[in-house]
Specification:
The chain is an alpha+beta fold. The protein contains 16 helices and 20 strands. It is elongated.
């Protein structure tokens, strides 16, 4: 007779550890525990997934081409500044396609000099254009083009993570999907619209100068109603000078709450961008109006001081995502590396603006490909149905085993309950996220839990029919079914691991419960039930077995 003392203690230890690990998942009991015990246990238990507690599921796509355009536009500005510093007169430096820059100049003798300067831009190569001595065309290298696009995805991923962290969402999921898509899951979110606006806002902060010389000649209206921007752009399309653009400032009347727009003629050239910001915080003005106070890093502070010194008495527009927030007159040189973004926005809008500025601008706009919002009531309904299905499945299996295998079936039912206890304890200890497919994995585990015992019991029946004693028949039944049980579990485990590694979202939740259930089922079937049979055979000589 095999000794069962060690296995019995192991079984008891596993049950106690599983129950204790599950305590953080049941907060009423967990909060009542003594402080020293709560310090040992993890603070969080099983987290509910988006489909169980409600929230939003977004699949967004990054506009890679726009990321390339933004990168090339910055190089255009750098080349223009370099030519000015070297006192080389150039008619224009413009981006003429997605990844090409054209430099126009009057004197053909300047071509060699400009070519020598552009050696400092190794990401571009000169395009051979015969018969054009007064221009140079430079194209972005394919390798650099690919790097910018890939970098845009990774930077967008990190920026979204930073914004969500500051928004304060528990257990968010932000991961890359495919080549250009990003999946965002925010369980338990109470303001889905605000969260979506915060995530997808590009937050490209730019400082541009107003073209006040041509403003009056263009004769733009002083104010227009909301949603009239497209009409104004169409009306003045042929009148806008080259190198300029029309942008709009949002204006909200405090008394009526009515929105209107103020059109401005703005120079396209970007004087400074938001990538030189080190901080952004909400402050309150003298009239109790919120504004965003921004702080530049060392390089940005020096550049901002230089720009303001060179443009005293001129108007500078603070532009965020092609919307003007303010267009103040520069009264004097501004040092200290600080500036303000004022506008007619609420405290919440100011807070959201500060969040996206602190987290950084997205490298390119995002397009929402899939938008799924699950309400809290629908999530609770999923929980109720999941628990109900688990209880029904468990009850049917328990009754079947008791009727078909009699007393041995009761032992198998004990293993099944032990399996569920250990599974919930393991999920809680790992602070795993339970999803609706995860509940399906638990239900599947219930079926697999009795599969192993069915194999064992059928082997025991064969041995009993061959005339073996009960004790020998039980030992032989377990020995002969061992390899079959291990083979079936290992193959299923391989499938579960593949689902976890390559699946996303709910599929991972299913894979976690499936893999844990398989591993625990091996223990409960081969150790848990065997201990009970050995204890039974050890206490008295059993002549017959109820199986």
């Amino acid at each position: 007779m095999k000794k069962v003392g060690g296995r019995l203690w192991l079984l008891a230890l596993v049950i106690v550890a599983s129950c204790v690990s599950f305590l953080p998942s049941y907060q009423p009991v967990f909060q009542a525990l003594p402080g020293w015990l709560k310090g040992i246990l993890p603070e969080k238990g099983i987290a509910l997934g988006l489909d169980l507690q409600g929230g939003i599921h977004l699949v967004m796509e990054v506009d890679e081409n726009r990321a390339v355009e933004i990168a090339v536009d910055r190089v255009v500005t750098s080349i223009h500044d370099l030519l000015v510093d070297k006192s080389i007169p150039a008619e224009s430096v413009t981006r003429t396609s997605l990844d090409r820059i054209t430099i126009q100049f009057q004197d053909a003798d300047q071509k060699a000099e400009i070519q020598k300067l552009l050696v400092d831009f190794p990401s571009f190569t000169e395009v051979d254009t015969e018969g054009t001595d007064n221009s140079l065309v430079w194209q972005l290298l394919d390798v650099e083009n690919k790097r910018i696009k890939d970098s845009a995805i990774n930077q967008a991923l990190e920026t979204i993570r930073n914004r969500i962290d500051q928004f304060g969402v528990a257990e968010p999921i932000v991961q890359r999907q495919g080549l250009t898509q990003i999946v965002v899951q925010l369980p338990g979110i109470k303001e889905p619209k605000r969260a979506k606006d915060l995530i997808k806002e590009t937050a490209l902060l730019e400082f541009k100068m107003l073209d006040e010389e041509n403003h009056m000649r263009l004769d733009l209206p002083s104010r227009i109603p909301k949603d009239m921007e497209a009409e104004i752009l169409r009306q003045f399309e042929d009148k806008v000078p080259e190198g300029d653009q029309i942008l709009f400032e949002r204006l909200i009347e405090k008394d009526t709450g009515r929105e209107s727009r103020i059109p401005y003629l703005v120079k396209k050239r970007v004087m400074l961008t938001g990538d030189v910001l080190s901080d952004a915080r909400v402050s309150i003005g003298q009239f109790d109006e919120p504004y965003v106070s921004i702080t530049f890093d060392t390089k940005g502070g020096q550049e901002f001081e230089r720009i303001t010194a060179a443009n005293v008495k001129k108007r500078m527009a603070v532009v965020l995502d092609n919307t003007i927030y303010s267009a103040p007159v520069i009264q004097e040189r501004i040092g200290g590396g600080r500036a303000q973004i004022t506008g007619t926005f609420s405290m919440q809008e100011a807070n959201d603006l500060a969040i996206v500025l602190r987290a950084g601008a997205l490298p390119a706009p995002l397009k929402i490909v899939q938008d799924l919002t699950v309400g809290p009531s629908l999530g609770q309904d999923s929980i109720d149905k999941g628990v109900k299905s688990t209880l029904i499945a468990g009850a049917m299996v328990i009754i079947f085993m008791m009727v078909y295998y009699r007393l041995s079936g009761v032992i198998a039912d004990f293993a099944l309950i032990l399996n569920l206890v250990c599974l919930m304890g393991a999920l809680s200890a790992l602070t795993a996220t339970l999803t609706l497919p995860g509940i399906a994995g638990i239900v599947l585990t219930i079926g697999m839990g009795v599969d192993s015992n069915v194999l064992i019991f059928e082997r025991i029946r064969e041995e009993l029919r061959n005339g073996k004693a009960v004790r020998l028949a039980v030992d032989s039944g377990y020995d002969k079914a061992l390899l079959t049980i291990i083979d079936s579990h290992v193959t299923t485990l391989i499938t579960g691991v593949a689902l976890f590694l390559f699946g996303t979202g709910p599929i991972k939740g299913f894979a976690v419960t499936l893999c844990l259930g398989i591993a625990i089922n091996l223990f409960t079937a081969l150790v848990g039930t065997k201990v009970i049979f050995d204890l039974w055979n050890q206490r008295k000589k059993v002549e017959a077995l109820s199986i």
